[in-house]
Amino acid sequence: MDGNGRWARARGLPRIEGHRKGVDNVRRIAQAACDNGIRYLTLYAFSVENWKRPKEEIQALMGLLETFLKKGVEDFARNRIRLRVIGDIDALPLLQRTLLKRALKQTEQYDDYHLVLALNYGARTEVLDAAKAYAADVAAGKADPKALDWEGFARYLTTADIPDPDLIIRTSGEHRLSNFLLLQAAYSEMYFSPVHWPDFDETCFAQAIADYRNRERRFGLTGEQVKQGEAPAAS
To answer: How does DSSP assign the chain, residue by residue?
Structure first.
């Protein structure tokens, strides 16, 4: 969800106003995802690298997270959305951590839709943590390294019970993944929009979905094999 700061700067506003508008847009796009029957929506909300930002901005972002969690639970319940999180939430401030855990508990019974927040998340950190956990299981005799395959290792990732992303959208004209779901994105389709996140509305979202549906997903096979049903095509 890139471009909040640039959106604000272009309007002569403080960066926090861009972030505030960005939070408002989360609800709009989450609803659009539900309306399109998209069961899993993952939002890169705060990366491990974001702690390097100015202290005042971090505090403001945590305040917005607090507001989002306090107001969002009713919306989640009404739409039968399960809130989930990937990343190290234990490093978040106590208030935000408490609200987040409460929201996770209050929505854990829902399965219609899943809103996944990547908070204090970084793909490289995730992989290192997974490797350490796997090594510990090997040392304890709980895992056989000779039998390791991707499915086995993926169970150690924070996304173990979350499908790999079909489509990754990045706003604001940047063309990189920025440490987001690097392993899970191996066969994801990419869509880069020049629109800043606060202005990325339902129409922009629909354009991204339409673009995705016009693509042929081959997963390493040939187009002919896909047409013969040997690999899943774009839904």
So the answer is: ---HHHHHHHTT--HHHHHHHHHHHHHHHHHHHHHTT--EEEEEEEEGGGGGS-HHHHHHHHHHHHHHHHHHHHHHHHTTEEEEEES-GGGS-HHHHHHHHHHHHHHTT--SEEEEEEEEE-HHHHHHHHHHHHHHHHHTTS--GGG--HHHHHTTSTTTTSPPPSEEEE-TT--S--SSSTTTTTT-EEEE-SS-GGG--HHHHHHHHHHHHTS---TTS-HHHHHTTSSPPP-
